[in-house]
Amino acid sequence: MKAGNDAGPLAGGIFYLLIGPVIWAAHLLLVYGPQSALCAFRADGMIVVAPFVITALVGVLTVTSMATLALVFWRPRQVARLLRFDAAEETDRRFSISAMRLLTALSFAGVTWAGAVVLFLDPCAQLR
Amino acid sequence: MVDFTAINPTPRPPGELEELKRVWATPKGWRIVTAVNNTVIGLFYIGVAFLFFLMAGVLALLMRTQLAVGDNNFIGQELYNQMFTVHGTTMMFLFAVPAVEALGVMLLPQMLAARDLPFPRLSAFAIWAYVVGGLVFFSTIFYDLAPAGGWFMYPPLTLKEYSPGDNADFWLLGIGFIEISAIAGAVEIVVGTLRTRPPGMSLAKMPIFAWSMLIFASMIMFAFPAVILATMMLEIERSFGWPFFTAEFGGDSLLWQHLFWFFGHPEVYIIFLPAAGLVSMMVPTMAQTPLIGYRLIVVALIATGFFSFGLWVHHMFTTGIPALSLAFFSAASMAVALPSSIQVFAWIATIAAGRERFRITTPSLFILGFLFIFTIGGLTGVMVAMVPFDFQVHDTYFVVAHFHYVLVGGMVFPLFATFYYWTPMVSKNMLSERLGRWVFWLMFLGFNIAFFPMHLTGLLGMPRRVWTYPSELGWDTLNMISTVGAYMLGAGVFLFVFDLLLRFRPGGSGPENPWRAGTLEWLPNDVYSTRSIPLVTSREPIWDQPDLAEDVREGRYFLPNAPTGGRETIVTSPIDARPQYIIQMPGPGWPPLLAAIFTAAFFLLLTIKLVIVAAVCGVIAVAFCLIWTWSLDVGPAKGSIDIGGGISLPTYVTGPTSHSWWAMVVLMFVAASLYLAYVFSYLFLWTVSPEVWSPAGSPALPALSWPAASTFLLLAGATFVVAAGRLLPPAGKFGVAVPLAIFLALACLAGSLAIEIAGHWRTGLSPSANAYGAMVYLGVFLFGQLAFALVIIGLFTIARHAAGKLDRERRVTFDNLALLYHYTVVQSLLGLALIHGFPRLVG
Ligand code: HEM
């Protein structure tokens, strides 16, 4: 055992591990925020956008997020290099790659699940 | 590769152990209240949390007695309303979160073989604040002063018009204040898990409980600020009439729901994740095999923590939000079931794969009970995540059944398992296994008998939060069964308390490693934690290194003594756990206790509108905080010390490596989440009521020269702070330029704040006119809070420099001031852009 610092910067390490869920959160925020705001404006008559614009927006954001997640899953080492993340031991490195990939896979499921609803529902309809 | 050069020669020099004992001795007699050691205050913390469980449990039994038969008059309507509010609030805020936080304080240092958490006095402060604040809050039920708006305190019901009196204020100020104590605990836990792990325990080798506590504390950092902001807004509206939640003036009560549930939903996972972490520690021991799917469980914990922030709208399905938005959150609510089920399967697999047959002990029974109950709760959770189903059962007893299944199953059962499992670590005797079976079966059967029928009463249409119901509706039998079950559950808890009184004897440890566990908390322990701090090479060190206990006890590992002559522990790097420095920690003392008592007094006296006395208490509290922090920055006088294994470590560091820098960064994250919640609220109210916004519905904004002047002063202040840092003289010298620069920086800050207030005031904008005015002044208020803190820290920094305790090397206090100052500048610039830019952009 030697005294000293970690192999890579901590912020890079945290972001590396969490990149999947971060994309998931960004997706949720980006589809929910504009969609609910645009629907509120339609109801007020302030800005009236056509419903298909909202649908398309959600669709495009979903497909983009899914593609990004797939890319991250496919190229974990490149992402690590980009974030200057490295672990000192091989076991730790393998641990972080597989944890990151699993989280990305779960986030992919989450994004697909949430985004898919746009295929079935009218963008601003109320349930009652 | 294991590097055994770490091992110290033995036998160790005489007197080392005695020195350790002396340094870490617990204060005797009534001075025990000044103790700060985690083993003492942790135990005290969990004891008080359990007391709140018992008291809220008594309220639950009284409510169940009232509901046993229809048309009952045992408890009147008003008292019943207060009871469910106090029961729910106490269980969530005063029992569940503090209990797991207490377990973190108590168990983490032992699991990480650290001598203590990095900020012992902060823990003590948090605990005392909670004890005083919590007891006063609970006692309101005895004087008809308790809040009655339900544990989520929805406005408009909780606005002054509909909830007159001080009752709701006790909730808002009392609970808001306890949240602050939870945040203090979270700071401790984040820094503790990341920086006080033993050498070699990289993140991938960290015990699952430590992972779960790390995620728990991170979630607190991001979730609690939302509710703190919300309580602040509601209290301001109640006291001063700033209409954040009143529709008539452009406010919206839905804003409260968004903020509350942005906190409230993660809250239930904040409660559950540590409990799951505890289960992940106990299952491998009972199966005598390493946890199957360690990696999967870490992933599941992180994913649950993250996803839980995307579910809050599922509490608001019936509020009239568009269907598509609901569907996003319905999907997320179902997605969160995936990581939870990963954990359940990993536990079942570990039980199945055991080297020995899964041992049926009392802790294992509680774990099996937990699996059964929590899974049912999870399944009904997926049911209510479906929007149409939720429309049917919203606000009925089905929901009461669901959340008790997840809360009692997911938290109370693991907690009881924990009590039985870890008692030998802190008590001379174990708890009785024989009585334990009785406790378990009474609690398990009682729970199911009490709560399963509530699914049916709910489906039959019985609403929650009703003090009584007409007998002819056919709900009587089911309610009677529920009440009988509740009393059975109560009998189980009573038996547990009886056993506890009989056998629990704190102040020493019982049989060594009675369950044959593999993790470090089962190493021989004393007040100083382990005699020496081991080098960790695997996840279950005790299983993999058969001589570990002996080697640790004999002092063959790191830091087998107290070389600085005071309390200390090793700080390691956050990912790979390489030793970095020795942190010198404070010992017992009065200031944290007194600061906590006066802080609690400040908030509580404010509740009953004794403003002047409250202010005096506030000043005293701040004074005690300053006395306490005065002794913290010990400086580099002790030089470097040898911790064994040929490693020599400094005893003082500053900058990004130091734990105090880390604590400040964590606090900045908390402040940033609070501010983001504010930005969200501003934009939310604008989408709801654009008609009250400037310039159409409110006075036009001040001319751009006003925010420009504020900006200039902020940037000038930041420059003064940078200059002060550069001007710090070497040790022993006093430079008048430093106090001057700090003073100018503070003056700039105050000037900027004054300009911002004056600018809006001159336009005629009033905070109580409408929601826009209220939001503008709230932004100023948040800026003012930071500025106030900075003025105190700034003057404190100047005083330290004048006293010769702050110089170029010994600069932790200054670094903290600089960090917070720069943060404040960034936040305020963002605020200026929002307040002065946004209405111009959209207006
Ligand atoms: C130990 C046995 C318990 C029993 C018999 C029990 C019973 C009850 C009863 C009768 C209510 C009122 C229902 C209504 O009128 O709508 C209630 C509400 C509630 N309980 Fe419990 N409870 C127990 C434990 C817990 C625990 C451990 C927690 C949390 C950790 C908890 C959290 C809540 C909450 C949040 C509410 C909702 C309060 C509100 O409507 O504002 N309970 N419980």
Automatic annotation (TrEMBL), chain A:
Presence of the UniProt keyword Transmembrane in the record: yes
Transmembrane segments: 12-32, 52-74, 102-121
Assigned keywords, A-Z: Membrane, Transmembrane, Transmembrane helix
Top-level taxonomic group: Bacteria
Keyword Membrane among UniProt keywords: yes
Protein name: Uncharacterized protein
Organism from which the protein derives: Allomesorhizobium camelthorni
Lineage, uppermost ranks: Bacteria, Pseudomonadati, Pseudomonadota, Alphaproteobacteria, Hyphomicrobiales
From TrEMBL, chain B:
Residue spans crossing the bilayer: 40-63, 83-107, 119-143, 170-196, 208-234, 254-279, 291-314, 326-353, 365-389, 401-423, 435-460, 480-502, 588-606, 612-630, 661-684, 704-724, 736-755, 775-798, 819-838
Catalytic reaction list: 4 Fe(II)-[cytochrome c] + O2 + 8 H(+)(in) = 4 Fe(III)-[cytochrome c] + 2 H2O + 4 H(+)(out)
Enzyme class name: translocase
Keywords annotated in UniProt: Cell membrane, Copper, Electron transport, Heme, Iron, Membrane, Metal-binding, Oxidoreductase, Respiratory chain, Translocase, Transmembrane, Transmembrane helix, Transport
Membrane topology term: Multi-pass membrane protein
EC number: 7.1.1.9
GO terms of molecular function: cytochrome-c oxidase activity; heme binding; metal ion binding; oxidoreductase activity
Gene Ontology CC: one annotated term: plasma membrane
UniProt subcellular location: Cell membrane
Annotated Gene3D superfamilies: Cytochrome c oxidase, subunit III, four-helix bundle, Cytochrome c oxidase-like, subunit I domain
Family note: Belongs to the heme-copper respiratory oxidase family.
Protein name: cytochrome-c oxidase
Gene expressing this chain: ctaD
